[in-house]
Design goal:
Among the domains are: 210 residues, Glycogen Phosphorylase B (Rossmann fold, 3-Layer(aba) Sandwich); 165 residues, Rossmann fold (3-Layer(aba) Sandwich), CATH 3.40.50. It is built from 22 helices and 28 strands. The strands form five sheets. The chain has a nine-stranded mixed β-sheet with strand order 3-4-5-2-1-6-7-8-9, with helices on both faces. The relative contact order is 0.07. About 4% of the residues have low confidence.
Length: 686
Amino acid sequence: MNILFSVHQFFPHHYTGTERLVLNLSKQLQKNGHHVKVLTYGIIETEDYHFQDDFLIKEYNFEGVPVISVRHVNIPAEVSFSIFDPDMEKILHSILEKNSFDIIHVCHPMRTGTIIKVAKKYNIPVLLTLTDFWLMCPRGIASTPQGNLCNGSADGKECIAECYGPLWSEKIQQRFAEATQVFSMVSWVVFPTAFLQNMFSKKIYSGPSHLIRFGNDYRYVRYNIKQYTEKSVVVVGFLSSLLPHKGAHILIKAFIQADQKNLYLKIFGDPLLEMEYFEQLKNQSKDHRTEFLGRYNNEDMENILQDLDLVILPSLWWENTPLVMLRALAHKVPVIVSDFPGMTEIVRDGVNGFVFRPGDSNHLKDILIQIGKTPSLLNEIKKNISYSKRIEEEAFEYEVLYKEIYSKFHSDVIQHSNCNLIGMAESKVSNLKIVPVLHTYFMEKYSEKFVFEIHDNDSMYQFLKQHPEIKDPVKEYYSSGESMIQALDDILSDQKIIVRGDSSFLDFASGYGRFTRFLPYMFTSGAITVSDIDKEAVDFCKERIKVNGFYSSEDPADLDIQTKFDIIWVASLFSHLSLKLWEAWIEKLYGMLNDNGLLIFSTHGCHCFNMLDGITKQNILHLDHGFYFIKQSEINTLSNNVYGTTYVTEEYVTKYVEKNKLGQIIGYYPHKLWNFQDIYVIKKYN
């Protein structure tokens, strides 16, 4: 698909949450095969623009993402207040004439909101993501200049009474009329938190909406593994905009009042955003244990979070799951947050973080004193931090919405059923389930030769079909297969491995091709081989997906195959084998690699183990240090003495590979597969 993102400001001069959302999604969607551009407004930039249609315009690339930036020659005083700007329509018409877009994704309607009107004239569907309150609050933060929280604008009446005054009455009324117009013209609205979704649905918007939480890019996540004793030093961090509603002054006041000699405070943020406020913060804090470290880049986060023991978000407005908070938790760094639903939907007080009353420096002081006196409290908090959604999952959820929206705009071509991903028209041909009506987008992405048939005996499809919580097994089947190819693509990109189309690839334990059918997207069919103990599955893949194949065996000693491969992919096999077979198969498959070949396999790790209930854990067999096995699985065709459910620690895998000289583990990706299973990458050296 050709996707245009629209956002009020963008990198490199602007780098906060909404801009990061656009950049993350753009890069992930590019990986997924889409063509992406970003439309933004140059609110502070002046360099490299040229005149066009009475406006200034320039195009540039940021981290591989093409960007179109527009701005007025003389920026109007109300450019960040008004929703629509008639003067901008001409330049936006030119942009849509020059480019062909299937969908426009507006991630903030400020400054470039006119694109919604222009898109309607070009019959381009619009998806709107709201990350703050700007459409119902001209200030965007739903709080008054006096710092009072606002629960609703009452169609602008509260804005006039509390924030702008009667002279703005006509402008406020016009603005709310335009907000209503925006909602009438977009196809769908997405919110990152249930709180924001509820606020809009109660106050201003009652149309179709969807909750998609922000995702993390785990390629740049390195866990903070520090453990604490009663004598530990604790470094507290603030990583946000240095603006009053972000509450840095509340944190500094609490930090000074706590007066814990083992606590240190590092404040990161751009001092140029509001110089007067920054000077107030510096004057407020004269403690030598406080450092102001200026603006930081996203690329610095990995190292910054290694040096911090705690991140505090003392916000005074209705925060909506700030990305800084999610990033800190992803790195296993505990957080303290103001008690606002957008953050407490994720952070539970005393469990995976701490919560204090908004603006209450005394309450925050008490928490800091508690941590200063007993730093070991952080050890238990770190254990309870679970992993947030990956950017791959977030992008996939948006893809599904894009497809649905696109389909509605082209309903004369694409016929829908209750499966929003693929139009279902099942018919039996022998023992195959055929999906003849394919969504145009999906077909374009993976070519017209993509195989959509699902075999009746496909155990994974049957498992999904019988699962009580899965409403659409076909959709789930394809999405899980697609997430595997995305995981593979991410890993190869992360390892900077360039794969030739004819590189030999083995999908081992392939089943009926849930993943294999996506491989021709990356490799030539003649270079792809499948193997499985189920002969019918191998035959199906060979016949329908047109790949090579050979039958596997229960005992690796019985497998006689002389072919070597550049890449061997094994998903959900080492997550089920008994100890003897686990070790035998990893050695067997390693021996089937070419020199410098890669063995990529998934396991159930500690995260999966910790999700088990107490009764199940009691039945776990501890077969070796770091190796756990239970005699049960979703596959009932194999004996559960050898094929059950297996959990292994990173330490066990690492030591086994080193002990048996099975190359080198060059990549470890916790929870990478379906946000659940860990993935290891072993490289075979000469």
